[in-house]
Amino acid sequence: MPRSVNVVASRRRRKKMMKHAKGYFGRRKNVWTVAKNAVEKGWGYAYRDRKTKKRNFRGLWIQRINAGARINGMSYSKFMGEANAKGIELNRKVLADLAMNHPETFAQVVKAVK
Prior knowledge:
By secondary structure, the protein is mostly helical.
């Protein structure tokens, strides 16, 4: 009896992977093994960098809050310590947005913390 291989499922699986490789350069877009390796590597980077992105944004928010706080005569650590002690429940993302786009509102927050 001849060997039975499920070509329909295999082709569907390969086609799905090749669809993800669309837009890659050279053999990475049309040679199965190269494309599969490139796509899997890309997924690994994407997974890793979703975590890195959160880290980078937190750092950016801290820098913006620090700059805004120093304009109003306070350091970042003092500002955050006092804000937590006073029970101000604004997160770093919101505080950074205020410091960047609404400096007068941020100045009122700093005044409330002082």
